[in-house]
Amino acid sequence: MKAYVSAIALNGAVFLFMCGVGMMVALLPQRIITLSGSIADVGYLASAFAIPYILFQLPIGRLADRFGFKIFLSGGYFLCAGTGVFVLFCRPSLFIFGGA
After folding, report:
1. Angle 69-89/2-36 helices, nearest 10 degrees?
2. pLDDT tens per residue across span 42-62
3. Tens digit of pLDDT for each residue in 20-37?
4. Rounded Cα gap, residues 22 and 75, in angstroms
5. Backbone φ and ψ of 33, nearest 5°
6. How big, in percent rounded to 5, are the helix, strand and coil portions of the chain?
7. Spatial separation of the C-alpha atoms in residues 1 and 7, rounded to whole Å
8. Which of 27, 83, 88, 92 has its CA 20 to 30 A from that of 21?
């Protein structure tokens, strides 16, 4: 049973994370359109997310291989939670691009 505790915790964390991502994917484009009035900003937001994702994927993956994945996985979850709270309280759409 002890061997399954990590797997159960990881599955639970991924479930919660994907619920949050699912809500953001559904609600964030409408929020951007409401704040900026432009549908083009939704595409800019997708690009603003993709660029850091591509740039940081390899270095963080190498660090996770070297030092272990748990610290980076938990750090990523906390960073995503913080970003979600940041986006919730942003009023100008430009700040949301900075948080992406």
Report:
1. 30
2. 888 888 878 888 898 899 889
3. 788 877 888 888 888 888
4. 20
5. -65, -40
6. 90, 0, 10
7. 10
8. 92
Residues in Cβ contact with 93 at an 8 Å cutoff, skipping those fewer than 6 apart: 32, 35, 36, 41
Structure tokens at 49: 């997310």
Q: Taking Cα atoms as reference points, which of 37, 40, 20, 39 lies closest to residue 87?
A: 20
Structure tokens at 33: 């359109």
User: CA 66 → CA 17, 26, 100, distances in Å?
Assistant: 24, 36, 27
Long-range interactions of 14-21: CB distance < 8 A, separation 24+ = 17/77, 17/80, 20/80, 20/81, 20/84, 21/80
